Amino acid sequence: MAVVNLTEIVRNRKEFIDEVEKHGGKNVNSCYQCGKCSAGCPVSYAMDYQPRQVMRMVQLGMKDKVLSTSTIWLCAHCMTCTTRCPREVDIAGVMEALRMICRKENRPIRERKVPLFHDLFLDIIRKGGRQHEFQLAARYKIATGNLFQDVDLGRRMFFQGKLRLFGPKVKGAESVRKIFEKCKELEGDVQ
Amino acid sequence: MSVERAGTGVSTAGWEPKIIGFCCNWCSYAGADLAGTSRIPYPCNIRIIRVPCSGRVNPQFVLRAFQRGADGVLVAGCHPGDCHYSTGNYFTRRRFLLVKRLLEYLGIEPRRFQVRWISGSEGQKFADVVAEITEQVKALGPAKMDKMRDVM
Amino acid sequence: MRYAYYPGCSLEGTAKEYDLSTRATFRALGIELEELPDWSCCGASSAHTTNHLLAVALPTRNLVIAEKQGLDLVAPCAACFNRLVTAQHKMEQDARLKGKVEQVVEGEYQGTVKVKAVLEVLATDFGVEKVREMVTKPLKGLRVASYYGCLLVRPPEVTKFDDPENPTTMDALVEASGAEAVMWPHKTECCGGSFAFARVDIVEKLSNDILAAAKSNGADCIATACPLCQANLDMRQKAIEKQFGTTYNMPIYYITELLGLALGLEPRSLGLGTHMVESLRLLREKELA
Amino acid sequence: MKEKLSELKETVARLLKDRTVDFFIAYQAGHSQVEPIPFFLTTAEHVENLFLNNFCAHNLSKYLLDYLAGDEVVGVLAKGCDLRALKRLLTDHRVERGRVFVVGLPCIGIYDRKKVQEVYPAGLVEVVEEGEEVILRGETGDKRVPRKEYLLPRCLTCPDHNPEFYDLLLGEKVANGPLAEEDYSDVRALEEWAPGERRRYWTRQFERCLRCYACRNVCPACNCRVCCFDVAEPRWLGKGTSLDEQEMFHFTRAMHVAGRCTGCGECERVCPVNIPLMKLNKKLAKDIGALFHVPQAEIPTEVEPLGQFRLGDPDEFN
Amino acid sequence: MCWCGSNIASTVDLDRVQKAVEKLTNVVHVEQNKYTCSEPGQAQIVAGIREHNLDRVVVAACSPRMHEKTFQRTVAKAGLNPYLLEIANIREHCSWVHTSVEEATPKAIDLLRAAVAKVIRNTPLTTSTIPVEKRALVIGGGIAGIQAALDIADAGHQVVLVEKEPTIGGRMAQLDKTFPTLDCSACILTPKMVDAAQHPKIRLLTYAEIEEVGGYIGNFEVTIRKKARSVNEDVCTGCGICWSKCPSKAPNEFDCGLGERKAIYIPFPQAVPNKPVIDRENCRYFTKGKCGVCKKVCPAGAVDFEQEDELLRERFGAIVVATGYELFDHSVYGEYGYGKYPDVITGLEFERLINASGPTGGKLKRPSDGKIPKTVVFVKCVGSRDEAKGFPYCSRTCCMYTAKQAILLREKMPEAEAYVFYMDVRTPGKGYEEFYTRATEEFGVNYLRGRVARIYPKGDQLVVRGEDTLVGAQVEIEADLVVLATAMVARRDAAELAQRIGFSYDQYHFFTEAHPKLRPVETNTAGVFLAGACQGPKDIPDTVAQASAAAVKVAMLFSRDELETNPMVATVDEGTCSGCEWCKPTCPYGAIDIKTIEERVGKRTVSRRVATVNTGLCQGCGACTVACRSGAMNLKGFTNEQILAEVEAICL
User: Fold this and answer.
1) What is the CATH number of the domain that holds C238?
2) How many CB atoms lie within 10 A of CB A11?
3) In which domain, by residue range, is E280 found?
């Protein structure tokens, strides 16, 4: 890791922490780096930095570095860390806030596929009001290019009647679409 | 004790309430000291009078404060059971439960007169209580109890 | 006992067994379910990872409909349950947010409806003892590891249901159905949830840990109350076995399927035939179906 | 009440003659039938001027305080409410039981002079009870009025028509039982008002106060040797009659008698400007009853309610 | 007026205050001083008094609770009665809590005006004296209580040492070795216990509790409940036949329930006094009415089933509270198994297991199956430094005793592996850091920096999942035994005891010292002193230091035959007193009586009842002054006139 020039970074540290807390991450400054969150995190083995280290980077204001980690995308939001934190820090909330900031400032994303999945998921319910798993799987495969992922699984599910080809019918789909528009107006981007 | 504050068109902008605080020497006065040593800022409207025990505060002192123009009065003592003189604040509690109701009965807005238990280790709570009572009294406007003289 | 019923999108597709078995079991216990008219998707993880207002508005649309129905709302899917109670919790705490959401949803939210998970209805409202009394075909000899997943019990101050570290309601129901609830440590370890598409390797690793823990503690099968967990443990079991060179062949039942069986319902009507990992063989071996 | 006058005269004469008492306090005729005044007899000859009718409201036991110096025995005519006042003085150690000879007077109710005079302005001779009604008989003929509306407020809720203790009882005991239950309805009504409204109400009352101290002088609970208002230093109260001084006076007196007021209502009766003082005392009696579970705050107890506490007292100050 | 360096001067414009105060009536001289409490500052006051012939002084500086006594002595040096002085608190209550000069200055003027209004009504007061009962009461028989008792007794004063358990020794008796010197706890403790038992000036009252405490410094009246031991202590020789023959068994609290004891028992072999006690809940005679073997076999006939609790009423001049601590109940931690896994034990239970007089005779055997553990994991900060489920404070001693326990483990069983999960290793004492380095270097204890997230069973072992934050990776250990270093918390009944004696305690129910830095062993209640962990978490060296400090404070108190009393007591104006006794029931010290006085009225002498105050008993709380409606009862130093004057001065 390159030398971190704290004098520059620490000056807008407070501003970065406020931004994170505005997006739902709570008590960032209370964290005393005890490691209980990383210890309990089920996905930490796959992360480039431990959740604790991400918290440290936020505390120091290392905005560019932390937004480029894979950790913030691999957080499954299972809330184990937030429930057990002795300082009552909402680590899951911080991860989520960092994801939102990353998207807002459309910075390079380490785990492209995760936001892609979420965008497709939201696009389908924005149009149909409910999720349509077949369409989600299909569009995800097209978007990622690996067309043959889970093909045999898909086939067996289809024969078990678990894959409905036709989308769900929601009379109120219009109102769901309106929700997406209003949220976009009030809070900026939805996708 | 405010005479139809709205009616008299008294402009309350820029007006600062004057609040008298009776603090018992062993707990709430020590709490106020701790707020000082910990540099916890609070509004400057309160003036603290030290008394050995909250049981020493005679209801007539409270009314004299209102009579001489105080806009809010606070009586602060130890939490029941913690009194340095063991039973002092039990009498305070009983007496001021009555005084609070009588003052409200005579037309004083409830928030103007408050009794709170604050221990020697609750510096932050002392600052919060002072801020709270200052804000509430400011909302109520001047008590104008002393201006009663010229009503006659 | 009547409840409004919010199936959730997955119960119409991959988790249709959960929908079938929940309706059948509730009917057998005499609990009426009234599907929420014209319900819509709760947004699940995608909504709250993208936009906080959207994450609260989508569930609230359904809550407003439920309030018109005037019944408490049952949400079998753990993700939907979590999103609904989180929306309620957030609006309770932040009146400004509530105002914004009502503006977005164009409806008034009073907060009169209580959202309940299937387990809460069965174990607390209905009562484990009453379930035990109504069991006609106890699942003797079946060793079940009850798996709660994460969203059902965390964060505790929001879900307010059972215990985040060592939940026991599903174990109690399993015992009530005559089967044996296995003591095992991974009751609330996460299965990988929404990474089913984006990072399948993570789901496989986490699910393998869960399957291994269940197996090493002598469980024949796993009971779940969450379609995401069932999907990851059941549909990907074959891939996991290939990936980690392990053999489990462990059926992943919905708790409502097991209870339905114990209440004497027909396996087919509970959707038992359509699991990825063959679910009837184990039951026949133990003469339970 | 009139029929007992002759028996009273005989008794008082005998008591004074055989020196059982050195003085006797009773009533004598005043300007009119409805305004009897206290009568302090020292010798038997004066018994002729004794007077007794159902307007004798004064609480004579308060005058015992003037006889504290020395060791004379003082006789006093006392109704039920007067005895509660005497019990107050005894509990407060201001009067020794041994120095008082109590002549108990059973009483079924005293009439409110002000109310009667509104209806029968002048020339009233006597008041005759007839069941639920009363006949006001006088020079301008008779007038029938409902009895309950013309009694003193304390008589409606009076629990002891017959004197609780006495050395000698005048006449026969009468039927007991209060005519109405004290429900503090007037106090509750006032509590419903907004603070500003109550403020105006009490300002109007206190504006009229002349600070004549009649209420303090007649009150059995206000029995200090030197009243704090009469002391120059510390100056609890100014001499001026401004509104804030009135407020200070009435607030302080209400708090001083809180828990010790016997509910006799004399303060309200004697107030020349009709300030509803009992509304203050009853408010405190109600609160003491509710807050500290003191069933009848007006019955004097060895230790006053404010002189004791219970760990379980309500606490709204944390 | 004091600058207090810049503490006051920085936010209060003292010149403006001086101008305003100079105009006040009765004020003849005003001056400012950079450090009034310093020698030169005080000298300036003395000079000022003499030069201007002052008869009243107001010092505007810090809180009277800080320097009132200092300035009273200064004023006395100038020949003025020390009580003709008032202090305006313009630091803690003004300059330190208000930021702008515009806010603080007018307030300082008001506070000074009030102080002047009060001081002109001060009257000269003189202290009187009361006798001192030169007997000390020590509550709690742990090392703190024993040390305090020994020191006080060696100073020549009578001591009564009251201990709730059947034996003295407290927590320290349960330990195996003590850090940092690793000497055996019993070896250094038992001699002191024996000294305490045999010291002519110390009377041991074990198996006894404090029922009631009245009175005040120099004259405490204490009721002690000596619980029924069912054994006559004078006759019993401690031969031990009774507890060897007793048929019924019960878990031994001394071994944290890991070992067993009989119904008639002494907690541990070196118990002092080694006289047994009958546990009536488990004794067959008391529960089922038959047995009584102990009575039959007792050669001295000491067993007496009819023995009743005894209430002893004694007088003391001083009280030393040394009631010690308890361990945090770690069952709130779901992630560590809610206290249900038998092999997840506390530090104290570990001490009992490795202790030679413990239930396993010193061999470390797992509570679940008795096996010798190969891998032991120590987890620190369980309940400490944890706002969510425990207490925010650090318990000070866990780092050291965990290092000690790890060393003992490696020393006794070199083949066993020891891991310690820590956040910090705090080694503040003498020789502590070197002791910790021995643990890592010499004994190879593996220190892993990170908090444990979860402990769960796997087979017959326990998987401990944590993160090594220095490497930045999750770590997992299959442990045979897990030892939790749980937080030191106040005793369950601490608040109740504090209220019974009449001194304050903090939000964690640790007792509050008079001043954390300057008066750590005193409380705000004169005559009551503190020693040991009851005042806050601390280790044995600090505890013993505090115990000796408390002992000196007691000896200081007893060095004088009489005690100066607080002159600010209630006083009756017999001219206005009505003798109504409304004041009497409000006095917590029973200092008010009624007397009859004679006086001339006209030509006759008449007797009258008036109240009178026993200045020895009165502590000056003032409750009686409010109960007295006529104002006859007043409180010197806080008279009605003074307080009214202060109110009016502030409201002008």
Assistant:
1) 3.40.50.11810
2) 10
3) 241-297
- Residue D272 lies inside a defined structural domain of this protein: yes
The alpha carbon of C265 is separated from its chain's Cα centroid by a whole number of angstroms, namely: 20
**pLDDT tens-digit profile of D44-76?**
888 898 998 888 999 999 999 988 777 889 999
Domains of chain B in start order, with CATH, are 19-151 (3.40.50)
Residues 325-384 of E with CB under 8 A from A: 335, 381
Which among C148, C163, C165, C184 is the top mutation candidate for probing chain E, defined by the most E β-carbons within 10 Å of its own β-carbon? C165
Residues D44 and D165 in one domain: yes
Structure tokens at C3: 């409840």
The total number of residues written for chain C in this structure? 289
| C278 close contact with A: CB closer than 8 A | no
Question: Is C134 part of a structural domain of the chain?
Answer: yes
**Interface list for A 59-98 with C (CB within 8 A):** 74, 76-80, 82-83, 96
Query: What is the Cα–Cα distance from E374 to E354, expressed in whole angstroms?
Result: 15
Rg of chain C (C-alpha set): 19
Assess whether pLDDT exceeds 80 at residue D265: yes
Instruction: Indicate yes or no: CB of E334 within 8 angstroms of CB of C165.
Output: yes
β-bridge pairing E264-265 and E277-278 = antiparallel
Phi, psi of E230 (to 5 degrees): 65, 15
**Residue ranges making up the domain that contains D192:** 185-292
Assess whether E380 and E415 both reside in one domain.
yes
Domain count, chain C: 2
Phi, psi of E284 (to 5 degrees): -60, -35
Q: Answer yes or no: is E645 within a domain.
A: no
Q: What is the mean pLDDT of residues B92-119?
A: 94
pLDDT digits (tens, 9 = 90+) for D274-285: 999 999 999 999
Give the residue from C116, C146, C179 where a domain finishes: C116
Domain annotation covers residue C122 = no
Q: What residues in chain E have their Cβ under 8 A from chain D's Cβ atoms?
A: 575-582, 584-586, 594, 601-602, 604, 606, 609, 627, 629-632, 639-641, 644
E631–D231 C-beta distance less than 8 A: yes
Tell me what the mean pLDDT of segment E465-482 comes to: 92
Instruction: Flag whether E507 is in a domain.
Output: yes
The set of residues, in sequence order, having a beta carbon less than 8 Å from that of C124 and lying 6+ positions away, is C169
ipTM: 0.65
Which domain, by its residues, includes C248? 128-285
- D63 and D193 both lie in a single domain: no
Residue B8 pLDDT class (50, 70, 90 cuts): very low
Please give the residue of chain C at the shortest CA–CA distance from A133.
C13
State the number of CA atoms in the 13 A half-sphere of E44 facing the CB. Answer: 16
Question: How many domains does chain D contain in total?
Answer: 3
Asked if residue E4 has pLDDT above 50, the reply is yes
CATH, residue E616: 3.30.70.3270
- Considering the domain architecture, whether residues D164 and D100 belong to the same structural domain is answered as yes
- Residue C134's CB: how many other CB atoms inside 10 A? 15
Chain E residue with minimum CA distance to C212: E458
Residue D116: what residue type? V
pLDDT in tens, A86-127: 999 999 999 999 999 998 898 999 888 899 999 999 999 888
The domain boundary residue, chosen from C116, C149, C165? C116
Check residue C244 and give left, alpha or beta (phi > 0: left; psi -120 to 50: alpha): alpha
CB contact under 8 A, D225 and E576: yes
Asked if E276 and E265 touch (Cβ cutoff 8 Å), the reply is: yes
Q: Kindly report the pTM of this predicted structure.
A: 0.73
Asked, for residue E302, whether it belongs to a domain, the answer is no
CB contact under 8 A, B145 and D247: yes
Same domain, E187 and E247: no
Closest approach of E542 to chain D, Cα-based (Å): 36
Tell whether D211 and D236 lie within a shared domain.
Answer: yes
Using an 8 Å Cβ cutoff, are E64 and E94 in contact? no
Residue B29: pLDDT band (50, 70, 90) is: very high
